[in-house]
Amino acid sequence: MKVLDYRRLGWGAMGLCLCISSVLAGEVDQALIDRGRYVAAVSGCNDCHTPGYAQNDGQTPEAQWLTGDRLGWYGPWGTTYPSNLRLLAAQLDESQWIAMARNLKSLPPMPWFNLNRMSAEDSRALYHYLRFLGPAGEPAPAYQPPGVEPQSPHVTFPAGP
Fold it and tell me: Which end of the chain is less congested by CB atoms within 10 angstroms, N or C?
């Protein structure tokens, strides 16, 4: 009889530990998501990767954040489009995301050199924020090589000094 009581006590304690750890994990996840939201906002990710964000003084609803944009960036390199980061994050696991952020080399105007310097903690937080938002939107238009005038709205960069 006492064995049964100890087993019940053991199972109850284990259940309590699981409950506490899931609550703590939820708090950590929320803190990580909040940090990712902050990183996206202050790192300028929304400036290009959220449609209309800069034009409406950052008042774009969060549900539309980081879904890419059809506004092209046209210059001597061709035309680039801000990718849909939410679709990208949905295709990668956390370690792949961090490796991508650390090693990305990209065409203008993406400041990849700043992304490469982002701490692993901030990169991880951004990834978890993107996963929290979930996949939404469409893929960005395809890159256009130099000399091909974009048909969509675009910003033209000067050829240089």
Answer: C
Beta carbons of 66 and 141 less than 8 angstroms apart: no
Q: Which amino acid, residue 42?
A: V
Question: Is 13 part of a structural domain of the chain?
Answer: no
Could you tell me which residues are beta bridge partners of residue 73? 80, 155
Q: Is residue 45 part of a domain?
A: yes
Q: Total domain count for the chain? A: 1
Judge whether 110 lies within some domain.
Answer: yes
* Domain region containing 39: 28-156
Dihedral in degrees, nearest 10, Cα atoms 119, 60, 140, 100: 10
Record the pTM. Answer: 0.81
- Tens-place pLDDT, residues 86-95: 999 999 999 9
On whether residue 93 sits in a domain, the answer given is: yes
Any idea which residue has 């506490």 for tokens? 20
Summarize the chain as % helix, strand, coil (round to 5): 55, 5, 40
Tens of pLDDT, residues 95-153: 999 999 999 999 999 999 999 999 999 999 999 999 999 999 999 999 999 999 899 89
